[in-house]
Amino acid sequence: MRKFKLTVLIMSVFALILAACSSASNETETSEEVMESTEISTVEITDAHGTVTVPANPKNVVALDNRTFETLADWGIELVAVPKPIMSSDSQYVTDSNVQDVGSHGEPNLEIIAAVDPELVIIGQRFAGYYEDIKKLVPNAAVIDLNFDVNSENSAQNLIDGFKETTLALGEIFEKNTEAEQLVSELDQAIEKGKSAYKENDTVMSVIVSGGDIGFSAPYTGRVWGPLYEIFGWTPALEVDNSSTDHQGDEISVEAIAQSNPDWIFVLDRDAPISGINEKVPAQDVIDQSPALQNTTAVSNGQIVYAPMDTYLNESIQTFIELSNSIANAFAE
Description:
By secondary structure, the chain is an alpha/beta fold. The protein has 12 helices and 12 strands.
């Protein structure tokens, strides 16, 4: 009997030890699971300065790059601060009073960026020069510079690669890889469509209309029209030595533009999306009312293509897909 009691006692003690071990093991596993769930997931992307570690799907985001706003909006990404003066007035970020205004790149209020305590700041193009200042302001945030150069000898390839790399990087950050790949595919298709539709001997003239004036937009360089000459293989109607990449176009007379007698005229209305300009003259009115241009092949045959109205402030991949498709459709008519 005594032996039986002793055995029962030993078994009870053994059971208690096993239970304690099991409990400790469960607590350890639970603790590890909690730690894993609280760890911040990150992705590594390459920007204009190198490799940057960025929190995945960040919630507190500042965006300052005109090439990214439409993409972020289409993906439903919420932003806490943007440069409202250099954005299209109908942008959801501009109309939302909860989104803070950083101001334009000419007179930015960078302290706003520090005040919203971002996880991520997206810089590019107009704000690229403030990269170091912003990094100092928000040392705990990931700061990425998505700027790419379109004012060099490689402007065409830089434009295509820049759009693709930027879009895919944003896709990784915001867990929108499928959407990003779709945009890249649409860009490739639009470019191929434009190349196929262009008739090799047709000459092209690109202009920027601003303040009621028509400015010559030089082939091969510049933010919008320039790189497209090489991308689509256009033959320029006019080339000028020492042309600039000025956003209002070069001061080449309308008469000189007319004398080149282009088969096609491509027009960017710089003033259309800028809300602070009073008494704007639409680019189409300026072209239609220019006596010098009326006898050109382009005007006579109605071979004029206007960039999307918000292009000057919205240089997104979506804008270039739309523009490329418009050009291809015009060539195909």
